[in-house]
Amino acid sequence: MTMINTREAFDDRDFRNVFITCACALAVWGMVFAFAAASSSLNRRVADEISSSDEVLDYAMRYRALPRTDANRRAAPEEPLGVVSRIVDVLKLRDRTQRLQSSSSGVFIQLERVFGGELLDFLVSLENGGLDVRAAEIRALPSSGTRLLSVSLTAEPAR
Fold first, then answer.
1. Of 85, 107, 111, which is closest to residue 96 (Cα–Cα)?
2. Whether 154 contacts 106, CB under 8 Å
3. Which tens digits make up the pLDDT trace of 89-103?
4. CB count, 10 Å around CB of 152?
């Protein structure tokens, strides 16, 4: 049995061409697998974002589906800031309230790390307190377990 001398093998033009062709094929094959893995990861992230936005949309639709009656829209006996402050205390959201500020356009509230059910309770309590939400921004926060929300909204007395 004779050993192949690598130096002589690479000096052979046909062997070198076959070797380069195999190396290029292997490189292309590796790039295809790398792109497939990146695509799969991207598809998973997009699916997660879509599901989180669907969850936020579901909460908004559930809130809008709640029955509206004139009994729910009574005049606020106190200042809107006091109503919101009382609601935050009752629902135990004080530690997750980032901003609570009164302005000429109403009360600005910013809540962090809120569960969807808590947000729904907060919105219903605002309405029962005689306040309407005029503008809101709801963002789903990235989390490992349950989905948490970040909420910024402006509430003003119901008309």
1. 111
2. yes
3. 999 999 999 999 988
4. 16
Tokens for 9?
């093998």
Average pLDDT of the chain is: 85
Q: What is the pLDDT of residue 70?
A: 58
Residue 120 per-residue DSSP state: H
State residue 130 phi and psi, 5-degree precision.
85, 20
- The three-class DSSP label of residue 98 is strand
pTM of the model: 0.56
Pairing verdict, β 106-114 and 131-141: unpaired
Task: List, in order of start, the domains of the chain with CATH numbers.
Answer: 66-157 (3.30.70)
CA separation (Å) from 72 to 5, 76, 113, 124, 157? 91, 11, 27, 9, 12
Q: Is 63 exposed, middle or buried (0-12, 13-18, 19+ CB in 10 A)?
A: middle
Report helix angle 80-90 to 116-128, nearest 10. Answer: 140
